[in-house]
Amino acid sequence: MTSDDPFVVIDTHERLDFLLDDSGWISMGDHPGLSCRKGTINSRTFFVAAFGGGGDVTVSAAGLNSLRHLIECAMDEVRPIVIIYDKHLVRDGEDEMSSFLELLALLGHCRGKVASIALVLGNCIGLGAVAASLADIVYCGPSALLSLSDIKVMMPFANPDNRANHADKTDTTKQSDRVDMIFPSEASAILAIRRLANFIPSAETVRWPNLDEISRPELSLARLVGKDREAPIDIARLITEVADDRDWLQFGSDHASGVVTGIMRLDGIIIGVIGNNSKINSGAIDLRGICSLRKHVGLCTRFDIPLISFIDSPGVFSEPGTDTSEILSEIAGLTLDFSDTRLSVVALVVRRAYGATMAAMSPLETFQNILAWPGGRIGLIGETAHSTRMPARMVQPENTRAALITALRAQNGAKN
Amino acid sequence: MTSPPFRKLLVVNRGEIACRIMRTAKQMNIGTVAVYSDADVDALHVSIADEAYRLGPPAAIESYLNIGRILEICRSTEVDSVHPGYGFLSEQREFADALFKIGVAFIGPNSAAIGAMGDKIESKRIASDAGVTVVPGYVGAINGPEDAKEIAGSIGYPVMIKATAGGGGKGMRIARSAADIVECVERARSEAAASFGDDRLFIEKFITNSRHIEIQILGDKHGNIIHLGERECSIQRRNQKVLEEAPSLLLDSATRQRMGEEAISLARAVGYDSAGTVEFVVAQDKSFYFLEMNTRLQVEHPVTEMVTGLDIVEEMILSAAGNPLRHQQSDICINGWAVESRICAEQPEKGFLPSGGSIEIFQPPMLTASLSTVRVDSGVRTGDTITSFYDPLFAKLITHAATREQAIDLQCEALDTFAVTGVATNIPFLSSLMRNKHWREGNISTALISEDYGDHFKPEQPDEAELLNFASVGVAVFLLTQLHWTSSDTATHLLSVIIDDVQIDCEVRLEGHAIIVEIAGKQINVTSKWKPGEPIWKGQVGGIDLAMQVSADANEITLVRSGFTTRLIILTPRQADLIERMQQRNQPIDVGLLAPMLGTIIAWKVAVGDSFISGDVLCIMEAMKMEMALHAECDGVVTKVNVTENQTVEQSMILMKYSKR
Prior knowledge:
- The structure holds two protein chains of two kinds.
- Chain A contains eleven helices and 19 strands.
- By secondary structure, chain A is an alpha/beta fold.
- In chain A, strands 12, 13, 14, 15, 16, 17, 18 and 19 form an eight-stranded mixed sheet that branches. A seven-stranded mixed sheet of chain A has the order 1-2-3-5-7-9-11, sandwiched between helices.
- In chain A, helix 8 links the parallel strand 14 and strand 15.
- In chain A, helix 2 runs parallel beside helix 3 and helix 8 packs parallel to helix 9.
- In chain B, the strands form nine sheets. Chain B has an eight-stranded antiparallel sheet. An eight-stranded antiparallel barrel of chain B has the order 24-25-26-27-28-29-30-31, surrounded by four helices. In chain B, strands 3-2-1-4-5 form a five-stranded parallel sheet.
- The longest helix of chain B has 19 residues.
- The radius of gyration of chain B is 27 Å and the shape is globular.
- The N and C termini of chain B lie far apart (73 Å).
- Chains A and B meet through helix 1, helix 5 and helix 6 of A and helix 17 and strand 32 of B.
């Protein structure tokens, strides 16, 4: 799908070539402004589609129908979907409007049945933006713009380094809480989806052989919490040391830097990860953090992905001027999200879980699934009130990986 | 078991040297006490000591140089001995005197000897009187540039202008002609005043193409003094030692004996009674001249320990306790060859800027049979933090073998398997140095690094064979980390490896336990037990044993070996064809200049709207007691400055933003 738009340097076919393995694919529809394929990413089957072609190309109802067919096939085969959104126009006709609304309904319907990933590379406006936002995971390239009309939901990419963003408090970049990651280049964004492919649920990727030692001792974790127990700790390092192959995928945290969310494999199984970043507000959760947690818990719930919660928070933080009722409402919502599902959750209290933290980070009825490092405490109203040694299993930091695997196995055994 | 010479030893130092001293103390059944600043509360030396006490805030003047607080700790802990290590208070006469007054033994020489050797003019005079050959020059402080010109003229150019209280390369300037004198005097004087609070200068002849060789001596309180041979410390960068070895390839036995005798003569002249080092500048014709005497344990003492079999710290402790030396000069034999590399947190490719942060992995070389003579003296562990408050040296790698060549080969092997991540280190530079032709041949001088490498370390490109080895290992790592290849996989993969702008296509398949890589018309078999997440890849490539550091981030694999740091992008051939065009899609974006570590911005050299080109100085930062210039890595225009002058900045903070041009 070549375009005359000088800004578009590769077309939709080439993007899909870049995304898929070289080992061959099947076309599921090739239309102006939209290509659909079934192919493999890292040898695992995916259904993929790419919008594009620039402002001169319009997508027809037939194209949208091909995309609907692709989604239905993915649901039948329980394979993940990747849709790449770039500058495109849908023909302004009754058929197209009808097809697009049906497409949106189908995208909503497939949530929880197959994993869907949206990659936004250019202007994505109106219903296209809504379609992209329905995906389980939304990645963006440097020129991405999600917008309902002229109201920008997300500004263009500004800085790939989250650490640096934390330091640069004056940075005005905003990121929608729908967006999971932003990448500095189109190539890095597509390659990141190939990496993500190893972590998202699919008929083929539920479990794979784990070559990493289960009881691999991590002596460095014994020193993660230093003598100064109030000093910030690097929760990402803790997750890295625990994960299979010391490899996990962290979602962007620009919009909710106080929490960490991501996916790892543990014991060969895909595991969702949430945690507190004590480098920001000492790990206290704010409104954005709660929204980010809800989104991630929702993803895990939809696909029955077990969750590990690394709790290290003094409570909930409300910025001056913030409507606290909104925070309360979101925490209540998160508590209900947990209780409405049979999501397997194991919580590890690293140092503290005070106030409403426990409700936000772990199902309240799963006290038996709480592990704690030595000195880890739960308090209803913080350290000064009835903070107590919790009814948790104490685990030495260096044995965290083995303890989490044991707890997950026990929980899965109980569930099954 | 004999009773220990002391009951309890306080080590007034930190890092690797504190750990090393405590190791010997524990072997001697002496209780150990550590002190720490707030920056070191979780440091290794604190955890291995029997007791540990806080000194104060991180700044050295408030902690490791805080004599009052240290004396308090001596009293409260009832220690009977103090070892100062090197640096900090190790050569402060006042400290030794203060300890004497409260009845605590100072593990070092008597304070009179420290005082006599602490002043460079005075030590030169004493040395001359003791019959030690000194560098031709003027024994006295100069009055000003005109005075300096007159003295320099009589000595003959080039001359070295030095601070009398100097050390560590500070307050030193070389004047090659009378035209240089005014600026050299002014700069040396101002640096000396700032660094030592003493702006007195003296002049001596500068020996060109010289070597730095020092004699280790040992003395006791009974008048016995011996020497333990020499250490060659000529491999230096800006007067800071980088590699050391023992013995020196230059010296013959007669010269060695003469240097040893002169060192003992000087030590005897000042009543020396501990371990110390007499430093000489040595011309390539083996003529040697006294430089200075260091009245303390040296960083590089392990190479002497390896070739003599002595524990110098143990000897110091015994001497301080009043024991006579256990060895006579005739007992001292030099066995084999030892080489030491200083492992520092710095960025050789960025002008050796210091680095800092949390050490994600610290994995010293494994002591397998072939590496049985590898010793690592370290002050850190995985998870520890390297701060900007102290010296960037955090470990020393020492190898000992029968020959110099073998000791150097061991260094190569050990450096390739020394994994440190999270903090940039000079390991690739050291690895390159170990393969440097001049170093290997022993054709060295103190100018080797500046002449062969300049101010920035630019790694050489690997040759084709090495490149194919890297590509083959990279592909094997990629298959395991990204495709999770297992022995049951039968598929053949076509992959493209991009190294810089070079694309190499290859075909990969599994045969038994070997990964077969068809690349550039060759078939390379790769076998390894490496597993994803491990920092060191070891295995066979084309039948040859190789080891290298590896980090994998999706399609980008970084391999470090033999001083080469090679970043490979591994793609399918189709992806490789498309990636260049895809990069054109990227809009110009603002990028940030990040603080390399915790420090203070001293001055800005650019403002918003200014254009700059690659290499321009953007700002001056102070960290780790050094001022450093932060250079532009590309051409650009400043769009925003985020910090003001004299503002403290954290590591990775965005100092300014700019648009690339």
